[in-house]
Amino acid sequence: MENQGDTAHLLARVSTLPTLPSIPYSNYQRRRKPSSKTKSTIYNQGSFSREIGHAAAETYLITRLSFKLLSYLGLGYRWITRFLGLALYAMLLMPGFIQVAFYYFFSPLVRRSVVYGDQPRNRLDLYLPAKIDSPKPVVVFVTGGAWIIGYKAWGSLLGKQLSEHDIIVACIDYRNFPQGTIGDMVEDVSQGISFVCSSIADYGGDPNRIYLTGQSAGAHISSCVLVRQAIKESRGETVSWSTSQIKAFFGLSGAYNLPNLVDHFNNRGLYRSIFLSIMEGEESLQKFSPEIMVQDRSSKAAVHLLPHIILCHGSSDSSIPLDSRSELLLKGNDDPPLLL
């Protein structure tokens, strides 16, 4: 009875409250449901703003790092002459560059700057086939650039060509020197591969057909990633991806024995002090040399975990001489590397 009295008292108080003006349901719908055109405009404006902001941030980053790099390198005649030669070479190739740049920035089949990690430049570009009616094979590409000027967009021509043959291409970006050293580069590429292995199915890729390839410095970084990952697995360490997920590795004009290349790079303009700074000191050259790493007796079990390896090198390569091409000396491996 007491509860019934309380309820009656509350109902009486509610009935004395002022009544809010009623709003027709049609007006409510008009205010709550903007047209699809408005939604599209807002989305496009937001997307365009993000693109502009990202481009501005990358331009600022590259400019700042360029000046920082100049403070390391100085303005020696080798760098000046090579820069002028590169500028002339780029001018001659400009018509082709324009075509590829137009495809890179405007093709709906290119997914630019997909984030794969928390560090600066932890982004990758995806090049998708025009028609994805079944899971497609995937090529993960790590570009070169002397560990200094590598950038994911350098792989746009490769991405365009392979995607036209029903292959998905993921071009991984990574921190360059002086933004990062070789340890940072290896960490970034490993994280990018992990993202591809776990997420490429969402883009129509086949996670059971992933191939890794790298060119020049990218080949060195990729091979370091593979060997170090195999060593971790052989020791039973927790890993976010497995070397067994990589069907094959293609190394193009790579450097696999760093101690043998210090003097060569110094004579080519990548001065010893700079190169050793990139590689975290002379004492670290061996632990970032895949050829030396696989010869270590403690790595014997890891060698058997490596995927099929194909190494390609030009006979007239002057950036990384042919005699530095590593056979990786996979003693006891049933699937030794194929050298071209």
TrEMBL record:
Alphabetical list of InterPro entries matching this protein: AB_hydrolase_fold, BD-FAE-like_dom, GDXG_lipolytic_enzyme
EC category: hydrolase
Cellular compartment(s): Golgi apparatus membrane
Occurrences of domain BD-FAE-like (ranges): 124-326
Secretion signal span: none
EC code(s) of this entry: 3.1.1.n2
Keywords, comma-separated and alphabetical: Hydrolase, Membrane, Transmembrane, Transmembrane helix
Protein name per its UniProtKB record: protein-S-isoprenylcysteine alpha-carbonyl methylesterase
